[in-house]
Give the backbone structure.
Amino acid sequence: VHRYLSYKNRIPPGAKPLPGPWGLPYIGRVHDIPEEASWMKFYEWNKEFGPIYQMEMFGTTHVWISSEQVAHEILAKRAAINSDRPTIPNLPDNRTSGDYLALLGRTETWKRQRKLCNHLMHTSALASLHQYPTRERDRFLYLMASDPSKYLEWIEQFTSRTVSRLSWGTAKPAQILRHTTFGLLQTISPSGALPNVISFLQHVPKALSPWKKKEAARHELEDRLFRANVSFVERSLESGRGEESFIGTFLKSKQSPDEKEATKWGDKTEAMHTVGLMAIAGALTIGSPIQSFILAMCHYPDVQKTLQKEIDEVCGGRCPQWEDREKLPMLRAVVKEVIRWRPPVPTGIPHASEKDDVWNGYFIPAGATIHALEWGITRDENTYPNPEEFLPSRWISPGYPTYREPLTQYPNLNGFSQFGFGRRTCQGVPIVEQDLFLSMGGMAWAFTIQKKIDPQTGKEIPVHWNDYTPLLIAKPCRFEFDAIPRTETRMEEMREMFEKAKEEEEEHDADLEMDIAQFEKDLGKEKIYRDRTCEQEVRQKQDSTTSGSGSEDGTASESASEGGSESTEDSPGLEFRDSSSEADTDDMASPLGSPKMTRFPLDGSIMGGGKQRMIGGEPLVQGLEVPGAWRW
Ligand code: HEM
């Protein structure tokens, strides 16, 4: 009653509260919010109460906005008072600790880190991100061809290796990064940890709180990893080598004889955290639209054909490169439409208001948590007619509200609502744009993606339409599909691209001193990160026919993947039971576990997943295998 009255008394004369659903005292409508796809429920209320409404939850006012224009007015035009972040109950020092730039309050630390992040991203973008996305894409395509049923693993490897190389100049930390990052996602997601919903649980002492204990262990591992990565880059630079990286750019500026330049970007610990957050953001998010792309290709074969036609005509049969982007508007439209159709951050990342305000006659109290509901924003029929349809042409055909010329430049992702508003907009767009352009373009060039046919019934195996994982970054639940290499020549080219990328990396990594095994042993403690929504789909039957039960050199327990640790009872290793790894069941329970090779036999079929497939309808002339894919 006291809270209600003090709230009422703060409303200036002539202003009124925002509309919203009626709720129970203190808890509001928390009982009505589903664990899965909560964004749909929030959007339902938007449809009932208008593009902006409010609701109380556990004593906090939450404002939900599902109109780009309103979000812009409140979060961008009034950025001076609406650019703070709320406290995350399960990570109570998120606003102050300086560990995670994206979660920091509007403090001086945030301002410094944001500037540094911007500088590092800009420097690498000018160098076209040092070719890392291209090299990793080349690796990714061949792995996809080797066994598409492990697509979740290959996609996560692609995104985490790319951002790891960008951050620290090497892909070696990528697997551990995935592990700690998925743990962080659980820590901060409303549906990931109970204290984020029932906020008073944050006051339970650590000894009695499983959430606090889990987060402390995860954070400790992450901190050690980031420190080791920075000292690795320092050693590399001292020995006159080391590839370009965000942290390398920072460390080089520190060596400048010009004192102003040397001190401009703050201290090393802060840079370590800034770069760490950039790595986290890249490892977490980009897999979502890549998976959604595959989902879209299963449901929209005609769009796939149009895309393939554009790529084949423009690139004359070769795989698209970043330099081709001006000539590939359809590919850019597909990239953008995937993000619109299935927003990777459907509830957005909330802002917090710092001052009482009146907008359009409505009162927004200081301390309110303001959500730009990205899901709702992409469903606005005025901007996006037929919003449920995957319709890339809305970006490149005159007549649609989102059409914009010149097509050599538009569509692109700059300023897209899905990357937030005002002073807190996403700083990762150059990476996102290049990763998605190359991976989606590469897949369209390489494969025909389609629903699988059940060999028993001869009918298509259904692919879900919109089942997504419930955490802050939503990804499609696992589904089955076929990725059929389009021609034999392309299969051969993919192998060559893979080999070349591998050679380059091996050459670079030849004498690198980086002891990743020291971290892997700790992963056993925090055994499984599991995304609940997809559990029923997890237990895929073991891939019994994949040939080769040992590694290339015949030792079944040979270390695999980046890390090189074994998967044993004591150290179960990298069991990434994120939706992204749910594919990796027994035979892939750990990418570090017993490596198995997928082979492309001489008879023109592909062995893998217990099935045989033809490549582009033509027999293969050469046996191919995935050389060292697991260990590399
Ligand atoms: C598909 C991929 C991605 C999507 C959809 C995405 C989306 C978002 C969204 C919605 C926000 C919050 C904006 C706001 O509060 O208004 C954000 C913030 C941020 N993103 Fe991304 N992001 C992606 C990838 C990345 C990558 C690869 C990086 C790497 C640097 C990155 C770095 C950041 C940072 C640093 C912030 C925080 C900005 C701040 O709080 O000042 N993001 N992103």
Observations:
- The chain has 20 helices and 13 strands.
- Residues 101-102, 114, 117, 277-278, 281-282, 285-286, 289, 344-345, 348-349, 351, 418-421, 424-428, 431-432 surround protoporphyrin IX containing FE (CB under 6 Å).
